[in-house]
Specification:
Number of domains: 6
Shape: globular
Structural class: alpha+beta
Number of strands: 16
Helix content: 40-55%
Distance between the termini: 59 Å
Strand content: 5-15%
Number of helices: 29
């Protein structure tokens, strides 16, 4: 395809060269197999093409030292982000810029402005340059994401990708390893890395092998480990052997149970604070008491490994112990780290972060309490927070997962929220779940049993905790008499057991509050995006769960046969509506309709949350009356919001544009509706609310303010919903989501009466 020239000047050689590339050529280097086929260039509309040509002619191309930042900035102000870099290159060439200037500016546009789905054809035509950019970690990330869109990864990129796959950047390592997964030599490349003279390369190679299958893998990995001296590389190889199905008991016993050659006289300086002398006794599963020096050596080994992820070496060491001893030792080490971190200066606790590897063996409740304590103590310490979350992610308990889900939703720092989100994705992928399903399955019980009660024992006396409709814990004694709190211990009762029981109650109250906050947010998003569950799964996750059932009882749900979908009541042929059931589950397991009839859900139906946009007005009124009669405070409002009428192709809503508002008030109302300012440090122009399950973000624009402004008067802008950087046509937005975002918009931009 030939790009139509919009310049009156004849194209020069550069323009012709680039035009040939754009004409349908693959742009691949000689010897490439298979060739990379790039899609043809789609011409711009007349107005955008004219704008592009004008911008390119206005850039200073008098010499090769053209300012890259100025050039890109001017292009970004005048062009949409999704402009094909090949069109930019063609326009620059036709404007008379030197070939090197053309390539420089175009590469900047492709790397730093476009998303990978737009930039990859340009990179396919410039493979040599793309390969060179893999040497820079920042540029490499952009190139790797673009390579993921190639129909096939060019074989000429394999050597460079292999270097990145064992490089220092964790993000780039993962991306490169995924790109190489389809090549049969990936296993050999990883084994070559394991034999590298560079320690960090051997570590990365060993970790890479975990996701690969290689012939004679166990024998080759054992041989590599036998000659490996780097601790972390040995730990990674041990984990890989486990993945390959090898019984590593002999290796673990030989290392874990061998007494150190000399008694520890003085710990490393960074561990001067650690109470080695107070380490609890540890017994093997057969009851054999371990030499205290061996236990001390485990702690030192964790410290030397310097990774808070205990899956692998530390987890295997703990597996040799009895279950109670393993949990007690793990809790002691982790809680000592948390206590020290409370008094540490920023960065100090990172020197001994390896101790957190013992989190892998902790009881879920105790780990969650310790982790929340650490996260709340220094909420602005990003590295420390990420370290704690990494340790927690290695623990398989629901309580640990809830900590990560909570951090992903509401941690103070955006970067930590993003990090926690990556952890949830990794854990979900490992278990074969979606991220949303992980959130469902990580709802902790907070100690409540299948009977819905929290059993609290003093030995001689028993107390019961029950959840109230407000999701607080009400206490009674065994005879049913209400109590405001747990009593003090009697002389005949075990003081430690009583203290432990009181801690259980404290933890349960905190956990219930966390569940209410996190899961309330998740269920609200589920309503907005129309997420559904098959009836058996819904029954397991909500109706039968000792905590989740109380959340479910404060909401109205819908059920439809799965072949009918879960949208609004669409009329069937003849004007009849498809069959849908709306219901509310009670805490005791009944399924009620709005008129109090007891229903039975068909097992082949799908359940979703009801919304006013999906129900007739009469049914909405019935449910509002039902909730009032039962004195139920809904977890959130399901019926008030309504969506505006939108036209096909409409990208935003502007009926709130032009309001003059004090920025303090605007910010306060936005925060109350769950919106945050954009990520610019000093100046912001938007409020954002993410809906991760839908991959959408609600964006409310305004004229802008600096972060210190309070009394500044600003002007409100439009509402839009975006996916990544792309605005979503409003007719494609789920109706409930559009209604809720529009309700947010009017509540934020319109001053209260």
């Amino acid at each position: 395809m030939q790009v139509t020239s919009r310049s009156q000047n004849p194209p020069d050689d550069t323009s012709q060269e680039i035009g040939k590339q754009m004409e349908g050529g693959s742009g691949v280097e000689p010897g490439e197999s298979p060739p990379v086929t790039v899609p043809p260039v789609i011409p711009l509309p007349e107005d955008r093409a004219a704008t592009l040509d004008e911008l390119c002619r206005s850039l200073d191309g008098s010499d090769e030292r053209v300012s890259r930042s100025i050039a890109r900035s001017r292009l970004e102000k005048g062009l949409p982000w999704d402009t094909d870099p090949r069109l930019v290159a063609d326009a620059l060439a036709r404007a008379g810029h030197l070939p090197e200037v053309v390539r420089t500016i175009t590469w900047d546009w492709a790397l730093w402005t476009c998303e990978s789905e737009v930039s990859w054809p340009w990179m396919a035509q410039e493979l040599a340059r793309a390969r060179d950019l893999l040497e820079d970690s920042t540029s490499a990330t952009r190139v790797l994401r673009a390579l993921a869109h190639f129909p096939t990864v060019p074989r000429s990129m394999v050597p460079a990708l292999a270097q990145v796959a064992v490089g220092r950047s964790e993000v780039n390592r993962e991306l490169a390893q995924k790109l190489l997964a389809g090549f049969p030599e990936a296993g050999d490349l990883a084994l070559d890395a394991v034999m590298s003279p560079v320690a960090h390369v051997r570590r990365a190679g060993a970790a890479w092998l975990t996701g690969l299958t290689i012939p004679d893998g166990v024998a080759r990995l054992r041989a590599a480990r036998a000659q490996e001296e780097d601790r972390l590389a040995r730990a990674n190889l041990l984990r890989t052997l486990q993945v390959y199905g090898d019984d590593v008991t002999d290796l673990v016993i030989a290392e874990a149970l061998t007494p150190p050659r000399r008694r520890l006289k003085r710990p490393p300086v960074a561990l001067d604070w650690f109470p080695f002398e107070a380490l609890p006794e540890a017994r093997l599963a057969d009851g054999t008491l371990l030499d205290p020096d061996i236990v001390r050596n485990w702690v030192l080994e964790a410290y030397r490994l310097k990774t808070p992820d205990g899956a692998g070496t530390i987890e295997l060491y703990l597996s040799l112990l009895g279950a109670e001893e393993a949990r007690a030792l793990s809790a002691f080490v982790v809680e000592c780290w948390v206590a020290h971190n409370r008094e540490a200066v920023k960065g100090e606790s990172l020197r001994n972060k390896g101790l957190l590897a013992f989190a892998v063996g902790m009881e879920g409740e105790r780990l969650a309490a310790a982790a929340r304590s650490a996260l709340s103590r220094h909420p602005t310490w990003r590295a420390e927070s990420e370290t704690v979350l990494t340790a927690v992610a290695a623990n398989p308990s629901a309580e640990a997962l809830q900590v990560i889900v909570s951090a992903a939703a509401q941690h103070r720092l955006p970067r930590v929220r993003g990090f926690a989100d990556l952890l949830t994705r990794a854990v979900a992928a490992e278990r074969g779940w979606s991220e949303a399903e992980l959130g469902d399955r990580s709802i902790p019980t907070a100690g409540f049993g299948p009977d819905g009660l929290l059993h609290l024992s003093y030995g001689e006396r028993e107390f019961l905790g029950r959840l109230t409709p407000e999701l607080t814990i009400a206490l009674t004694d065994a005879d049913g008499r209400a109590r405001k709190s747990l009593p003090a211990a009697r002389k005949s009762e075990d003081g430690e057991l009583v203290a432990q029981t009181r801690r259980r109650l404290t933890f349960a109250r905190k956990e219930v509050a966390a569940v209410l906050k996190v899961q309330g947010r998740r269920l609200y998003e589920a309503m907005c995006v129309g997420r559904s569950w098959p009836v058996p799964q819904w029954q397991e996750l909500f109706a039968d769960h000792p905590l989740a059932r109380h959340l479910a009882a404060r909401l109205v749900w819908m059920a439809r046969r799965q072949d009918e979908g879960v949208g609004a009541h669409e009329p069937e042929a003849g004007g009849q509506e498809t069959r849908a059931w709306t219901f509310r589950p009670t805490e005791d397991g009944q399924i009620l309709s709005a008129d109090d009839a007891v229903l039975e859900l068909p097992p082949d139906a799908a359940v979703t949350l009801a919304h006013g946009m999906l129900l007739p007005e009469a049914e909405v009124a019935d449910w509002q009356e039902h909730l009032t009669d039962y004195e139920i405070t809904p977890l959130f409002d399901q019926f008030s919001a309504s969506a505006p009428q939108v036209e096909p192709g409409q990208w935003g809503i502007d009926d709130g544009v032009g309001r003059r508002v004090v920025v303090r008030d605007l910010r306060k109302r936005a925060k109350a509706r769950g919106y945050e300012s954009d990520s610019t440090i000093y100046w912001y122009t938007t409020f954002l609310k993410d809906f991760p399950v839908a991959g959408l973000c609600s964006v409310i624009d305004f004229s802008g303010a600096d972060v210190w402004s309070a009394d500044q008067v600003v002007t409100t802008g439009p509402l839009s919903l975006v996916s990544g950087r792309r605005a979503m046509p409003l007719e494609q937005v789920p109706p409930a989501l559009l209604a809720e975002c529009y309700a947010d918009y009017r509540a934020i931009v319109d001053p209260p009466d």
